[in-house]
Amino acid sequence: MTTPVTGPVLVLLDHAADGGLRQPVLELLTAARALGTVHGAWTADADGSDPDARTLELLGTYGVETVHRLDVGDADVRLTPVLAQGLTALVQSAGASVLLLTSSFENKEVAARVGLATGAGVVVDASAVEVADDRVVAAKTVFAGTWNTRCAVRTPLAVIALKAGSVQAEPAAERVTATVVAQAVTVDDGARRVRVTEHTERAASTRPDLAAAQVVVVGGRGTNGDFALLEELADVLGGAVGATRVATDEGWIGHDAQIGQTGVTVAPQLYIGAGVSGAVHHRGGMQSAGTIVAINNDPEAPIFEIADFGIVGDLFTVLPQATAELRRLKG
Known about the structure:
The chain is α/β, with parallel strands linked by helices. The chain contains eight helices and 15 strands. The protein has helices at residues 23-33, 53-61, 80-94, 105-118, 228-237, 245-249, 280-283, 315-330; strands at residues 9-12, 38-43, 64-71, 98-102, 121-126, 128-132, 135-142, 147-153, 158-162, 179-184, 215-219, 240-243, 270-274, 291-296, 309-312. It has a seven-stranded parallel β-sheet, with helices on both faces. The protein has a five-stranded parallel β-sheet with strand order 12-11-13-14-15. The radius of gyration is 21 Å and the shape is globular.
């Protein structure tokens, strides 16, 4: 028999500069409800602002009972050492049994720092989390997706970084009223050794965030640097555009689009790889996609070994036809 964890499940409420919650946060909250009582960690801006009424209502809809507004004074909470120290203080003051974060580059570093400071068991790039035999158990793939593992955390605190797209976000059966509690934390001089001198917000894109997208269209060496057809298909499907390491190393597209072991890990419902060979490095970042479609003129390309649907052909012939047909079907 399994029981919920004893302490609260603290979820890091990643949000944009305008205060809007990022989509993977709702997935974390859905997963957190299955573990126990849900609390949120809200990083206050320089003006110490709370989440607005609309955000609080949304959090209540997803079962968040308490929102801990983390105030680190004049330190910059965008720096991972600062955020890690703040979350360490929060999990201790709240008596949390689990800390859940979205498995982004920054958050994985934060998870490691919190784990080191608290002695917690840490699992990053997890694809699922549950309570089994009264322990927090996380699932993840290892060795470039060739093994599926389950990791039982044996410490009182579990720190789990969950991949975006691993859980279908669903509101709670009953809405609760989220209460904000201010938590002032003083960070030490070590966390202040780095100072942000300039910050530029990335230009807003009409496409979904790559890590959280439900549809991802990916280009590799076979594109020869021309991503126009992929972008056109992605726009028709409402998806994001990704790339292999070769494509980003060639400078054909920004490095933030790289999918793989040293890039973004994606778990979309639909992955379309065009001119992608399927090297081990890349497969490690996309193999858990729901449906994999591969387009390559090389029938021996390794990606066909894991593809649900394979098209042997020239992507510059296949993609325009696919885009045109999808447009026709959508009317």
